[in-house]
Design goal:
The chain is of the alpha/beta class. The protein contains eleven helices and eleven strands. The protein has three domains: 81 residues, Arc Repressor Mutant, subunit A (Orthogonal Bundle), CATH 1.10.10; 99 residues, D-Maltodextrin-Binding Protein, domain 2 (3-Layer(aba) Sandwich), CATH 3.40.190; 99 residues, 3-Layer(aba) Sandwich (D-Maltodextrin-Binding Protein, domain 2). α1 crosses α2 and α1 crosses α4. Keywords: DNA-binding, Transcription, Transcription regulation. Belongs to the LysR transcriptional regulatory family.
Length: 296
């Protein structure tokens, strides 16, 4: 599909786009303030207009067909452009104000979010951005934060979640540590080294075992709930630590351990509550985060 027909009904397109991103007709209907039968008719009308099947009904679930995926790729930039035109035309782009709270891990908050905040300051100078650097899962439904960046998919049905990408990570150690203790050549060799834990050693063992590592609590002489503290411990030569390649590779005193090994991937989920569709401020921050973190 290269060109959309000129006479398509935008309401039908919006119904499809919202359903595709929400994952179900009921969730999409809630977002758009419509009844589920009305939304279903709009999606069906679009399929008729295009003469193609956009969703497959598998039990109670909706799965996008390849045609649906292709259409979604076209519609997302159109919807973003339409939103920007509406903001500019109405003058509301200048009225975006108030405080929006973003929560992410302390490492992510310190090393990834400042660039996003810098971009937001130019887009909406009256907007106040508060970053909550926390490694626990903040409760969006209680408004402890407006938007969360998480590494696990949320299960609450009232939240909107979009997976942006997977963040590659490797093991790192300081040059001093490797000079003193030697360099592991295989995952099996890691059992002979000191590792630094994020949180409890038990959680780290659970996370590392699927990678093929055989480690025990004796491999974790120190650690911290704080990723920033753990990274500083590693920089001081106290052990080997897993870290995103974005941070690890640009830290001069740190060396990637097992450099030829495949990275392990950390999923990045962008999550908010349904006020996303009624608050221009939250929508702007959400879309800016999605754009930046998808490309970086």
């Amino acid at each position: 599909m290269s060109i959309l027909p000129k006479d398509l009904n935008w309401n039908h397109l919006r119904a499809f786009l919202t359903t595709a991103e929400a994952g179900s007709l009921s969730a999409a209907a809630c977002q758009l303030g419509q009844t589920q039968p009305t939304l279903s008719r709009q999606v069906a009308a679009l399929e008729t207009e295009l003469d193609m099947l956009l969703f497959e009904r598998i039990g109670k679930q909706l799965e996008l067909t390849q045609a649906g995926l292709d259409l979604l790729e076209h519609l997302r930039p159109m919807a973003a452009a339409a939103e920007q035109v509406a903001l500019t035309a109405s003058g509301q782009s200048q009225s975006i104000a108030g405080r929006v709270k973003i929560t992410a891990s302390d490492v992510f908050s310190a090393h990834r979010l400042p660039d996003v905040v810098h971009a937001l300051r130019h887009k909406a100078p009256d907007l106040q951005i508060e970053i909550i650097a926390a490694n626990d899962i903040r409760d969006l439904m209680r408004r402890e934060a407006d938007i969360a960046i998480r590494h696990v998919q949320p299960e609450q049905p009232d939240l909107i979640a979009r997976k942006l990408n997977d963040l590659p990570a490797h093991f790192y150690a300081s040059k001093d540590y490797l000079a003193q203790h030697g360099t592991p050549l295989t995952l099996a060799d890691m059992s002979q080294h000191d590792l630094i834990s994020f949180g409890s050693a038990e959680r780290m063992i659970e996370a590392l075992t699927p990678l093929g590592m055989t480690v025990t609590e004796r491999n974790f002489p120190c650690g911290s709930e704080s990723g920033l503290v753990g990274w500083e411990l590693a920089k001081r030569g106290l052990g080997i630590i897993p870290m995103s390649t974005i941070l690890g590779d640009k830290t001069p005193e740190m060396v990637r351990v097992l450099p030829d090994a495949d990275p392990f991937m950390i999923p990045i989920w962008l999550v908010t509550h349904r006020e996303l569709h009624s608050s221009r401020s939250i929508r702007l921050v959400f879309d800016t985060l999605a754009e930046f973190l998808s490309e970086n």
